[in-house]
């Protein structure tokens, strides 16, 4: 078993805890955990820290840090589909279920979305209710609204650089 390393990353939304092994990011969650070890962060954690800084500065829309979330086969399918949502756009839970080929799986998509262990990079904040309401978010609705506004503000600027 590959050892995991943990760091806390400062963001405009508060601290986030990142966990990775030598090859991929395993978790990125809001809040700080006492297990975080800033020393010897490793390549993956250094990469996600730099990419998050660029994202929050409005200079990055697509992350390249490798991710390897752990979940059920259905959750993994949902999380891969979330990664197809372009920065600055949203999809409904129903649209995700349809994209997966199972229109009746809207609630299951919501449950998988809520279990996403890699915030922002696997953009569960881009999933909203069919009527346009935000729905839930592990980081809180204020954080979800902030992220969506941030992306909409910066995505157009980045396309013309």
UniProtKB/TrEMBL annotation:
It is found in: Cytoplasm. Keywords: Cytoplasm, DNA damage, DNA repair, Methyltransferase, Transferase. Residues 73-152 form the Methylated-DNA-[protein]-cysteine S-methyltransferase DNA binding domain. Its main location: cytoplasm. PROSITE patterns: MGMT (PS00374). GO terms for biological process: DNA alkylation repair; methylation. It holds the Pfam family Methyltransf_1N. Residues 8-68 form the Methylguanine DNA methyltransferase ribonuclease-like domain. GO terms for molecular function: methylated-DNA-[protein]-cysteine S-methyltransferase activity. It catalyses: a 6-O-methyl-2'-deoxyguanosine in DNA + L-cysteinyl-[protein] = S-methyl-L-cysteinyl-[protein] + a 2'-deoxyguanosine in DNA; a 4-O-methyl-thymidine in DNA + L-cysteinyl-[protein] = a thymidine in DNA + S-methyl-L-cysteinyl-[protein]. Its EC number is 2.1.1.63. GO terms for cellular component: cytoplasm. The active site is at 124 (nucleophile). HAMAP family: OGT. Belongs to the MGMT family. Involved in the cellular defense against the biological effects of O6-methylguanine (O6-MeG) and O4-methylthymine (O4-MeT) in DNA. Repairs the methylated nucleobase in DNA by stoichiometrically transferring the methyl group to a cysteine residue in the enzyme. This is a suicide reaction: the enzyme is irreversibly inactivated. This enzyme catalyzes only one turnover and therefore is not strictly catalytic. According to one definition, an enzyme is a biocatalyst that acts repeatedly and over many reaction cycles. This is Methylated-DNA--protein-cysteine methyltransferase. It comes from Botrimarina colliarenosi. The gene is ogt.
């Amino acid at each position: 078993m590959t050892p995991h390393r943990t760091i806390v990353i400062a963001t405009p939304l508060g601290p986030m805890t990142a966990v990775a092994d030598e090859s991929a990011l395993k978790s990125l969650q809001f809040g700080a955990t006492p297990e975080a070890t800033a020393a010897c962060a490793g390549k993956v954690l250094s990469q996600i820290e730099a990419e998050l800084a660029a994202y929050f500065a409005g200079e990055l829309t697509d992350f390249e840090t490798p991710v390897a979330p752990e979940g059920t086969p259905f959750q993994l399918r949902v999380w891969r589909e979330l990664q197809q949502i372009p920065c600055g756009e949203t999809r409904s839970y129903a649209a995700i279920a349809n994209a997966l080929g199972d229109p009746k799986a809207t609630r299951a998509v919501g449950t998988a979305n809520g279990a996403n262990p890699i915030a922002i990079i696997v953009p569960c904040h881009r999933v909203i209710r069919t009527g346009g309401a935000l729905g839930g978010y592990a980081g809180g609705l204020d954080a979800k609204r902030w992220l969506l506004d941030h992306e909409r503000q910066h995505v157009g600027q980045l396309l013309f650089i």
